[in-house]
Amino acid sequence: MQAETASARWTLANLASTYLFWALIGAFLASAFGVMVFNYALVWLPSFRDAESSPRELTMYFSIGGNGFGILLGILLARAKRTEGLAAIVAAGAACYVLAWFALPDLGAGRGLFLIFFGHVIRTAFAFAIAFNLAGAASDRHAFAGAFAVWSTCELVSSSAIYYAASSTFLRFQSDGDWALVGIAAMGFALLLLASVRGRSFDEAPSERHRPLKPVSREGATVTVVAASPWVALGAMTLLGAVVPKYVNVMSYWSTAVTVVFVCGLVACSYWVYRIHGEVAYFHRSSNLFTPRAALLLFLLVPWGTSILLLTLGGVLREVQKQRPSSRRRFTGWFNAWCIVFPPVAMGMVQEQINELAEGQAESESESSPQFT
């Protein structure tokens, strides 16, 4: 029988509980920001904007070509399963941007189009390499969903929030040319992150990572209400903006109140997510269970990470229920539906199950302890 490879034993929770995972994501976002700063700035340079060949019309074709070539390069980089290839293309991009910075403002349209092409190659290759590495290393059924969530989040952030941040950076530092330094610094930060994980990969077997926390009893209904407060705050802000847009003073007071509710609810949810993963590990140290720190990062950084975390918790608690047939079954098909439709309800269900397991654990310990008369 052929031995199982080390990479086949990695779950999404194992992957997301490592520094390598988050360093790769951070390096991608930093390099994407640096690329977008230059891509946005190049089309506004005089030598590029006033060219007779109308290079503005060609930027779309060069961007599409860079994305296509980046997909192929990302596949090759993913096969290597190392970070050296990613570091090489980021370093090459940073070097090209440094040379372009020295050539400003007389950078020709042809060189500008090449930089746009190469920038899209870097961004797409980086994103595809990360997604392929995560999907290839993990073996559980949540691996593809997790890799797709990371990929989608990176694309969403890099194509929207980072784009606006890059454009704002250029407009802020356009007069003195310091925008180029900001973009190059972002590429340098990406290189530092990649250098910090040099030699690491997901080929080795995952190490023991759980740090169990003693369960704390909480009312499931209270958890649901507190977890729903950020959602209610967002809905209230939208409603207030539509109903009372003319009353500036009223809107200002209500906005402050709603913001306070949102922040307090988010902090409470973050604390619950951190604690609950350690408390579940108290009963069962499953390889599918995220560490508290990894769960907190996924909850805060990935928009739909809450659903992934809750579905994972449900699967782990089902394993605990199989080991303890006396516990009441709470996770029916409705639990999975609530994880997607309205996660706060599923959070309350998880808390109720933890309370029941803690009570059963306390009863079994009291029965097994020696009785003295």
Structural features:
mainly alpha, Growth Hormone, Chain: A, 373 residues
Written description of the protein model:
- Keywords: Membrane, Transmembrane, Transmembrane helix.
- The chain has two domains: 190 residues, Growth Hormone, Chain: A; 139 residues, no CATH class.
- The N terminus is likely disordered.
- The chain is built from 14 helices and no strands.
- The radius of gyration is 25 Å and the shape is globular.
- It is mainly α and 373 residues long.
Under CATH at level 1, the class of the largest domain stands as: Mainly Alpha
Q: List segments where confidence is low: pLDDT < 50 over at least 5 consecutive residues.
A: 1-8
Beta-strand share of residues: under 5%
Q: What is the average per-residue confidence, as pLDDT, rounded to a whole number?
A: 81
Overall tally of structural domains: 2
**CATH architectural designation of the largest domain:** Up-down Bundle
What string gives the helices and strands in order?
HHHHHHHHHHHHHH
Q: What does the radius of gyration come to? A: 25 Å
Number of E-state strands: 0
Q: Note the gap between the termini.
A: 58 Å
C-alpha geometry: globular
Count of helix runs: 14
CATH topology of the largest domain: Growth Hormone, Chain: A
Name the CATH homologous superfamily of the largest domain: MFS general substrate transporter like domains
The helix content is: over 70%
Largest beta-sheet characterization: none
